[in-house]
Protein backbone atom coordinates (compact mmCIF):
# COMPACT_ATOMS: atom_id res chain seq x y z
CA UNK A 1 0.00 0.00 0.00
CA UNK A 2 1.20 3.50 -0.79
CA UNK A 3 2.67 5.35 2.17
CA UNK A 4 0.13 8.17 2.52
CA UNK A 5 0.07 11.11 4.90
CA UNK A 6 -2.84 11.47 7.30
CA UNK A 7 -3.31 13.07 10.70
CA UNK A 8 -6.78 11.58 11.19
CA UNK A 9 -7.19 8.57 13.48
CA UNK A 10 -10.27 7.37 11.59
CA UNK A 11 -8.20 7.20 8.41
CA UNK A 12 -5.24 5.57 10.16
CA UNK A 13 -7.61 2.89 11.44
CA UNK A 14 -9.12 2.42 7.95
CA UNK A 15 -5.66 2.10 6.39
CA UNK A 16 -4.61 -0.55 8.90
CA UNK A 17 -7.79 -2.54 8.34
CA UNK A 18 -7.33 -2.34 4.56
CA UNK A 19 -3.85 -3.80 4.84
CA UNK A 20 -4.92 -6.46 7.40
CA UNK A 21 -8.19 -7.67 5.93
CA UNK A 22 -8.23 -10.79 8.08
CA UNK A 23 -8.79 -8.79 11.26
CA UNK A 24 -12.42 -7.99 12.09
CA UNK A 25 -11.38 -5.11 14.33
CA UNK A 26 -8.30 -3.85 16.08
CA UNK A 27 -7.30 -5.04 19.53
CA UNK A 28 -6.89 -2.07 21.85
CA UNK A 29 -9.23 0.12 19.79
CA UNK A 30 -12.82 0.96 20.75
CA UNK A 31 -15.13 2.82 18.36
CA UNK A 32 -18.36 4.60 19.39
CA UNK A 33 -20.61 6.19 16.76
CA UNK A 34 -23.24 8.87 17.45
CA UNK A 35 -25.21 11.38 15.40
CA UNK A 36 -26.82 14.77 15.92
CA UNK A 37 -29.28 15.07 13.02
CA UNK A 38 -26.97 15.26 9.97
CA UNK A 39 -23.79 15.73 12.04
CA UNK A 40 -22.05 12.45 12.85
CA UNK A 41 -19.66 12.04 15.79
CA UNK A 42 -17.24 9.10 16.02
CA UNK A 43 -15.11 8.42 19.09
CA UNK A 44 -12.03 6.25 18.72
CA UNK A 45 -10.43 5.18 21.98
CA UNK A 46 -6.85 3.97 21.61
CA UNK A 47 -6.77 1.99 24.85
CA UNK A 48 -3.28 0.50 24.98
CA UNK A 49 0.17 0.47 23.38
CA UNK A 50 -0.78 -2.38 21.04
CA UNK A 51 -3.55 -0.28 19.50
CA UNK A 52 -1.27 2.78 19.37
CA UNK A 53 1.42 0.89 17.49
CA UNK A 54 -1.02 -0.54 14.97
CA UNK A 55 -2.42 2.80 13.83
CA UNK A 56 0.63 4.94 14.62
CA UNK A 57 -1.17 7.33 16.97
CA UNK A 58 -0.65 7.94 20.72
CA UNK A 59 -2.90 6.29 23.29
CA UNK A 60 -5.93 8.42 24.12
CA UNK A 61 -9.35 9.55 22.94
CA UNK A 62 -9.99 10.89 19.43
CA UNK A 63 -13.39 12.36 18.58
CA UNK A 64 -14.23 13.12 14.96
CA UNK A 65 -17.08 15.39 13.90
CA UNK A 66 -18.12 14.97 10.26
CA UNK A 67 -19.84 18.16 9.19
CA UNK A 68 -22.46 18.42 6.43
CA UNK A 69 -21.61 19.63 2.93
CA UNK A 70 -21.72 23.39 2.33
CA UNK A 71 -21.52 24.09 6.07
CA UNK A 72 -19.20 27.03 5.34
CA UNK A 73 -22.00 28.73 3.40
CA UNK A 74 -24.80 28.20 5.94
CA UNK A 75 -24.77 30.22 9.18
CA UNK A 76 -27.42 28.06 10.85
CA UNK A 77 -25.47 24.85 10.20
CA UNK A 78 -22.27 26.55 11.40
CA UNK A 79 -23.98 27.30 14.72
CA UNK A 80 -25.21 23.71 15.04
CA UNK A 81 -21.70 22.35 14.44
CA UNK A 82 -20.31 24.80 17.02
CA UNK A 83 -22.77 23.48 19.61
CA UNK A 84 -21.82 19.86 18.88
CA UNK A 85 -18.13 20.80 19.15
CA UNK A 86 -18.80 22.54 22.49
CA UNK A 87 -20.54 19.42 23.81
CA UNK A 88 -17.65 17.19 22.68
CA UNK A 89 -15.07 19.52 24.23
CA UNK A 90 -17.08 19.59 27.44
CA UNK A 91 -16.57 15.83 27.81
CA UNK A 92 -12.79 16.24 27.62
CA UNK A 93 -12.22 19.47 29.56
CA UNK A 94 -13.45 18.51 33.05
CA UNK A 95 -11.50 21.36 34.65
CA UNK A 96 -12.92 23.68 37.32
CA UNK A 97 -14.44 26.77 35.68
CA UNK A 98 -12.37 28.97 38.00
CA UNK A 99 -9.13 27.59 36.56
CA UNK A 100 -7.24 29.37 33.77
CA UNK A 101 -7.41 28.14 30.19
CA UNK A 102 -5.01 28.97 27.34
CA UNK A 103 -6.03 28.69 23.69
CA UNK A 104 -3.16 28.34 21.21
CA UNK A 105 -3.66 28.99 17.48
CA UNK A 106 -0.93 27.00 15.73
CA UNK A 107 0.10 27.65 12.15
CA UNK A 108 1.28 30.28 9.71
CA UNK A 109 -1.15 33.17 9.24
CA UNK A 110 0.62 34.05 5.95
CA UNK A 111 -0.41 30.73 4.34
CA UNK A 112 -4.19 30.35 4.05
CA UNK A 113 -4.51 26.55 4.47
CA UNK A 114 -2.28 26.81 7.57
CA UNK A 115 -3.97 29.90 9.02
CA UNK A 116 -6.83 28.11 10.80
CA UNK A 117 -5.17 28.25 14.24
CA UNK A 118 -4.29 31.98 14.20
CA UNK A 119 -7.77 32.86 12.91
CA UNK A 120 -9.38 30.88 15.73
CA UNK A 121 -7.10 32.54 18.30
CA UNK A 122 -8.27 36.03 17.31
CA UNK A 123 -11.94 35.03 17.80
CA UNK A 124 -11.54 33.61 21.31
CA UNK A 125 -13.31 35.36 24.18
CA UNK A 126 -10.30 36.39 26.29
CA UNK A 127 -11.07 37.26 29.93
CA UNK A 128 -7.94 36.67 32.00
CA UNK A 129 -6.87 40.34 31.88
CA UNK A 130 -10.28 41.55 33.05
CA UNK A 131 -9.67 40.16 36.52
CA UNK A 132 -7.06 42.91 36.93
CA UNK A 133 -8.18 45.81 34.75
CA UNK A 134 -11.99 45.46 35.03
CA UNK A 135 -12.84 43.21 38.00
CA UNK A 136 -16.37 44.62 38.13
CA UNK A 137 -17.07 43.42 34.58
CA UNK A 138 -16.88 39.69 35.38
CA UNK A 139 -17.77 37.37 38.24
CA UNK A 140 -16.66 33.93 39.38
CA UNK A 141 -18.84 32.23 36.75
CA UNK A 142 -16.54 33.48 33.94
CA UNK A 143 -13.44 31.37 33.33
CA UNK A 144 -10.14 33.27 32.94
CA UNK A 145 -9.07 32.61 29.32
CA UNK A 146 -6.05 33.81 27.36
CA UNK A 147 -5.10 33.24 23.72
CA UNK A 148 -1.93 33.30 21.64
CA UNK A 149 -0.84 32.60 18.05
CA UNK A 150 2.89 31.82 18.41
CA UNK A 151 3.65 31.59 14.69
CA UNK A 152 5.93 28.99 13.14
CA UNK A 153 9.62 28.17 13.45
CA UNK A 154 10.42 29.67 10.05
CA UNK A 155 9.08 33.07 11.15
CA UNK A 156 10.08 33.20 14.82
CA UNK A 157 13.21 31.05 14.90
CA UNK A 158 11.84 29.50 18.10
CA UNK A 159 10.29 26.06 18.53
CA UNK A 160 6.57 26.54 19.05
CA UNK A 161 6.52 24.30 22.11
CA UNK A 162 9.19 26.52 23.72
CA UNK A 163 7.00 29.62 23.30
CA UNK A 164 3.94 27.86 24.69
CA UNK A 165 5.90 26.38 27.59
CA UNK A 166 7.14 29.86 28.53
CA UNK A 167 3.58 31.22 28.50
CA UNK A 168 2.33 28.23 30.50
CA UNK A 169 5.03 28.72 33.14
CA UNK A 170 4.16 32.41 33.45
CA UNK A 171 0.34 32.31 33.33
CA UNK A 172 -0.12 28.85 34.91
CA UNK A 173 -3.23 27.61 33.05
CA UNK A 174 -4.85 24.32 34.07
CA UNK A 175 -5.83 23.63 30.46
CA UNK A 176 -4.29 24.25 27.03
CA UNK A 177 -6.39 23.96 23.86
CA UNK A 178 -4.38 23.86 20.62
CA UNK A 179 -5.89 24.39 17.18
CA UNK A 180 -4.03 23.45 13.99
CA UNK A 181 -4.48 22.52 10.33
CA UNK A 182 -4.07 18.82 9.49
CA UNK A 183 -3.65 16.63 6.41
CA UNK A 184 -6.18 14.07 5.20
CA UNK A 185 -5.76 10.86 3.23
CA UNK A 186 -9.11 11.27 1.45
CA UNK A 187 -10.16 14.31 -0.55
CA UNK A 188 -13.70 13.98 0.84
CA UNK A 189 -12.49 14.74 4.37
CA UNK A 190 -10.71 18.00 3.50
CA UNK A 191 -12.46 20.87 5.32
CA UNK A 192 -15.26 18.45 6.27
CA UNK A 193 -13.92 16.88 9.47
CA UNK A 194 -13.02 18.22 12.90
CA UNK A 195 -10.83 15.99 15.07
CA UNK A 196 -10.56 16.56 18.82
CA UNK A 197 -8.16 14.62 21.03
CA UNK A 198 -6.62 14.63 24.48
CA UNK A 199 -3.22 13.43 23.24
CA UNK A 200 -1.60 16.70 22.14
CA UNK A 201 -0.44 17.74 18.70
CA UNK A 202 2.65 18.11 16.51
CA UNK A 203 2.86 21.61 14.94
CA UNK A 204 3.25 21.52 11.16
CA UNK A 205 2.03 17.93 10.89
CA UNK A 206 -0.45 18.87 8.17
CA UNK A 207 2.31 19.89 5.77
CA UNK A 208 4.86 17.27 6.83
CA UNK A 209 6.97 19.54 9.06
CA UNK A 210 6.58 17.72 12.37
CA UNK A 211 8.01 19.63 15.34
CA UNK A 212 8.32 18.70 19.01
CA UNK A 213 4.97 17.58 20.38
CA UNK A 214 2.75 19.90 22.37
CA UNK A 215 1.29 17.57 24.98
CA UNK A 216 0.84 17.09 28.70
CA UNK A 217 4.24 15.41 29.01
CA UNK A 218 6.07 18.45 27.59
CA UNK A 219 3.90 21.22 29.10
CA UNK A 220 2.93 19.72 32.45
CA UNK A 221 -0.77 20.60 31.97
CA UNK A 222 -3.77 19.00 30.30
CA UNK A 223 -3.71 19.52 26.52
CA UNK A 224 -6.62 19.19 24.12
CA UNK A 225 -5.97 19.33 20.37
CA UNK A 226 -8.46 20.44 17.71
CA UNK A 227 -7.62 20.00 14.06
CA UNK A 228 -9.20 20.24 10.63
CA UNK A 229 -7.66 18.65 7.52
CA UNK A 230 -7.18 21.50 5.04
CA UNK A 231 -4.80 19.79 2.61
CA UNK A 232 -4.24 16.43 0.95
CA UNK A 233 -1.03 15.01 -0.51
CA UNK A 234 -0.85 15.17 -4.33
CA UNK A 235 0.64 11.66 -4.39
CA UNK A 236 -2.47 10.41 -2.55
CA UNK A 237 -4.78 12.01 -5.12
CA UNK A 238 -2.78 10.56 -8.00
CA UNK A 239 -2.73 7.10 -6.43
CA UNK A 240 -6.48 7.06 -5.75
CA UNK A 241 -7.28 8.34 -9.24
CA UNK A 242 -5.14 5.69 -10.92
CA UNK A 243 -6.70 2.97 -8.74
CA UNK A 244 -10.19 4.12 -9.76
CA UNK A 245 -9.23 4.12 -13.43
CA UNK A 246 -7.68 0.63 -13.17
CA UNK A 247 -10.73 -0.75 -11.29
CA UNK A 248 -13.05 0.74 -13.91
CA UNK A 249 -11.03 -0.73 -16.79
CA UNK A 250 -10.95 -4.15 -15.13
CA UNK A 251 -14.70 -4.04 -14.57
CA UNK A 252 -15.38 -3.17 -18.19
CA UNK A 253 -12.82 -5.54 -19.74
CA UNK A 254 -13.42 -9.13 -20.74
CA UNK A 255 -11.71 -11.60 -18.43
CA UNK A 256 -9.08 -13.70 -20.13
CA UNK A 257 -7.95 -10.97 -22.53
CA UNK A 258 -4.34 -9.80 -22.54
CA UNK A 259 -5.46 -6.30 -21.52
CA UNK A 260 -7.40 -7.69 -18.55
CA UNK A 261 -4.44 -9.82 -17.47
CA UNK A 262 -2.12 -6.81 -17.74
CA UNK A 263 -4.38 -4.69 -15.51
CA UNK A 264 -4.70 -7.46 -12.91
CA UNK A 265 -0.93 -7.92 -12.82
CA UNK A 266 -0.05 -4.27 -12.06
CA UNK A 267 2.37 -4.20 -9.16
CA UNK A 268 1.24 -1.85 -6.36
CA UNK A 269 4.78 -1.03 -5.26
CA UNK A 270 5.86 -0.29 -8.82
CA UNK A 271 2.84 1.97 -9.26
CA UNK A 272 3.76 3.88 -6.10
CA UNK A 273 7.35 4.27 -7.26
CA UNK A 274 6.21 5.60 -10.65
CA UNK A 275 3.76 8.09 -9.11
CA UNK A 276 6.42 9.48 -6.77
CA UNK A 277 8.98 9.65 -9.56
CA UNK A 278 6.67 11.59 -11.88
CA UNK A 279 5.38 14.01 -9.24
CA UNK A 280 8.83 14.70 -7.81
CA UNK A 281 10.34 15.27 -11.25
CA UNK A 282 7.54 17.66 -12.25
CA UNK A 283 7.25 19.60 -8.98
CA UNK A 284 10.79 19.34 -7.54
CA UNK A 285 9.51 17.78 -4.32
CA UNK A 286 6.38 17.27 -2.20
CA UNK A 287 3.15 18.83 -3.36
CA UNK A 288 0.01 19.33 -1.28
CA UNK A 289 -3.39 20.35 -2.60
CA UNK A 290 -6.14 22.51 -1.10
CA UNK A 291 -9.57 23.58 -2.47
CA UNK A 292 -9.89 26.81 -4.45
CA UNK A 293 -12.39 28.32 -1.97
CA UNK A 294 -10.01 27.83 0.96
CA UNK A 295 -10.16 31.51 2.02
CA UNK A 296 -13.91 31.41 2.64
CA UNK A 297 -13.79 27.94 4.21
CA UNK A 298 -10.99 28.81 6.66
CA UNK A 299 -12.91 31.91 7.80
CA UNK A 300 -16.05 29.83 8.37
CA UNK A 301 -14.24 26.97 10.11
CA UNK A 302 -12.41 29.40 12.39
CA UNK A 303 -15.78 30.84 13.49
CA UNK A 304 -17.21 27.36 14.10
CA UNK A 305 -14.23 26.26 16.19
CA UNK A 306 -13.86 29.55 18.10
CA UNK A 307 -17.57 29.55 19.00
CA UNK A 308 -17.34 25.90 20.09
CA UNK A 309 -14.34 26.63 22.30
CA UNK A 310 -15.96 29.77 23.75
CA UNK A 311 -19.08 27.84 24.74
CA UNK A 312 -17.08 24.91 26.13
CA UNK A 313 -14.73 26.97 28.31
CA UNK A 314 -17.54 29.30 29.45
CA UNK A 315 -20.29 26.78 30.33
CA UNK A 316 -22.14 29.40 32.39
CA UNK A 317 -22.65 31.64 29.33
CA UNK A 318 -24.78 31.02 26.24
CA UNK A 319 -23.88 31.97 22.68
CA UNK A 320 -25.86 35.23 22.85
CA UNK A 321 -23.98 36.39 25.95
CA UNK A 322 -20.64 35.47 24.40
CA UNK A 323 -21.48 37.36 21.21
CA UNK A 324 -22.42 40.43 23.25
CA UNK A 325 -19.12 40.23 25.10
CA UNK A 326 -17.18 39.91 21.85
CA UNK A 327 -19.08 42.97 20.59
Summed up, what is this model?
The protein is of the alpha/beta class.
Any overview of this molecule?
This protein is an alpha/beta fold and 327 residues long. The chain has 2 domains: 9-235 and 287-326, 3-Layer(aba) Sandwich (Rossmann fold); 236-283. It is built from 13 helices and 9 strands. It has helices spanning 9-19, 49-55, 75-93, 116-121, 130-133, 153-156, 160-171, 216-219, 234-251, 258-264, 268-283, 294-313, 319-326, and strands spanning 29-36, 39-46, 60-66, 101-105, 145-148, 175-184, 193-197, 222-233, 288-289. Strands 1, 2, 3, 4, 5, 6, 7, 8 and 9 form a 9-stranded mixed beta sheet that branches. The longest helix is centred in the C-terminal third of the chain and has 20 residues, at 294-313. The protein is elongated. The model has no long low-confidence stretch (mean pLDDT 85). Initiates the rapid degradation of small, acid-soluble proteins during spore germination. It is an enzyme of class 3 (hydrolase).
Amino acid sequence: MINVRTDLVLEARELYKESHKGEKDLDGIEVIEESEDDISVTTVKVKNEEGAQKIGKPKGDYITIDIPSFTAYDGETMDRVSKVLAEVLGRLIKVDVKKNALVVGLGNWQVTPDALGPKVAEKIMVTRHLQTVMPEAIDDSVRPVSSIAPGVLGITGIETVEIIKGVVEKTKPELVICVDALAARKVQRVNATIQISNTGISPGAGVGNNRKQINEENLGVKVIAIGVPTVVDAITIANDTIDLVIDSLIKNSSSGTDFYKMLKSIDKNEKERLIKEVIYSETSGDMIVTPKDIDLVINSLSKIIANGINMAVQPNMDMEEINKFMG
